[in-house]
Amino acid sequence: MKMNSEFERIPVSVSLTAVLGHIAPGGAFLGCLYLFEFWAHHSLVSAGVHLPVYTFFQLAPRSSENWLGTTLLGLGLLLGVYITGHVVDAVAALVMDRTLVYRGYGYPFHTLLGYLPRRRANENQHPGGARKRVNIQALSLIGDTRAIHPEWVHLSRNMYRGAFFWLNCYFLIRWMSYASLAFSLPDANTWLRAIANGLGYLGAAFILLKGTVNVRRAKRMRRLIPNRFHRVKRVSWIMAATAAKILASPVSPFASVLSQVLDTRRSFDGQFRALYERQFRRVFSLDPRAAESNNYWFVFAYVKDTSPDLFAVASHWKNLYEFSRNLSTAFYLAALYCLFWISFHSRLVANWKSPGASIVLGIPLALFILAVIMLIHYYYFYVCAYTKFLFRAFVYAAGREEARQNREHGAPNVLMTASGAPMSPGSW
Fold first, then answer.
1. Which pLDDT score is estimated for 126?
2. Among 368, 420, 412, residue whose Cα is nearest residue 36
3. Cα–Cα distance list, 114 to 111, 265, 288, 338 (Å)
């Protein structure tokens, strides 16, 4: 009963910003689909063309003839938009946060604090010796953050960055092959389709290669004889490492320039990191270099618990970056829907040269550009606004708490650096 009463006192609130953060992306996704199908209906009318979203919105108002029916219809539509927003949010969390950011670049606190993912202690004591180290290399290649060697982490991130880049290149080339129909370029259409098919085959081969390395994670594969591990090292590992470097080669220059412009890859200065590590050890009795993701979660919980004002500012930045992430995902999913629709109906449309057809073909490209713009906006707010402020808020709140404790115990009102030297609160 006591535990239940404690849980009952936990405040559960739903802010207007959080609700709009789901309604706006859901409405943007459905609105983009309606806009696309509206132009498709008025420009590419043909037998066998499917327009589910446009048809629903056209038929829905006729199904209600009184104010009650109209009200219920509006509430149902709002609920549908809200649920769609939650679906978009789930896809964004999986694709953007977990795959592109975490697997491709690492969470921002890794870069800001200068920490690499660490190998777990039990793996250092494994009796497998060299065979275990080979398997750790394979684990790190597929994105397992337990490997400490920077080269393996780099290769893992190359694979995910390269896969994301070339997958979108495949979609763009597919779109260009259909856009060439509007400009009467049959030869270009043939070549573009051949290039897209080639990228598709290479993608399938890449997935197969990744699967051959992935299977090394199984426990039964870890007990294989040494010769088998040597074959893994010579074949799967070398091929996958080479593929990772080739895949990511077009991404690195663009990512480097963008990170310099946005200032997203620069770590905190050494003095701040030393002060952070000291406060983290003092508050949580943990080594921040071994805490991994607890660096974020413990800091998040501490700021929320000790400083509501600072946490309100951090929550504002968090809502903004999540809104940008979800809106980018909504535009991206809408662009993919338009592309798949064009691909499915390309043989049913007789006239791709009409002005309306050009608008239909231009909508997915415009949505893709908007998705990229909002993706850059999301990553900038995620790193430079939210994450940086959260860690600075922790150092400030922890330093203020330490100063209060010093006053209560009659100690001098100064902060200490990691080396134990006094630091004036105004200097940080």
1. 39
2. 368
3. 5, 10, 11, 42
Residues in the chain with pLDDT values less than 50: 1-13, 119-148, 215-232, 418, 424-428
Kindly write down the DSSP assignment for every residue of 75-93, as one continuous string.
HHHHHHHHHHHHHHHHHHI
Q: How far is CA 79 from CA 18, 21, 84, 90, in A?
A: 15, 14, 8, 17
CA of 210: how far to CAs of 17, 195, 213, 349, in Å?
40, 22, 5, 39
In tens, the pLDDT along 118-141 reads: 544 444 433 334 444 444 444 433
Rounded Cα gap, residues 28 and 72, in angstroms: 21
Assign 3-class secondary structure to 219-239.
Answer: HHHHHCCHHHHHHHHHHHHHH
pLDDT at 16 (0 to 100): 64
- Is 339 in contact with 174 (CB distance < 8 Å)? yes
Angle, helices 388-408/308-345, rounded to nearest 10 degrees: 170
Taking a C-beta distance cutoff of 8 angstroms, is the pair 134, 237 a contact? Answer: yes
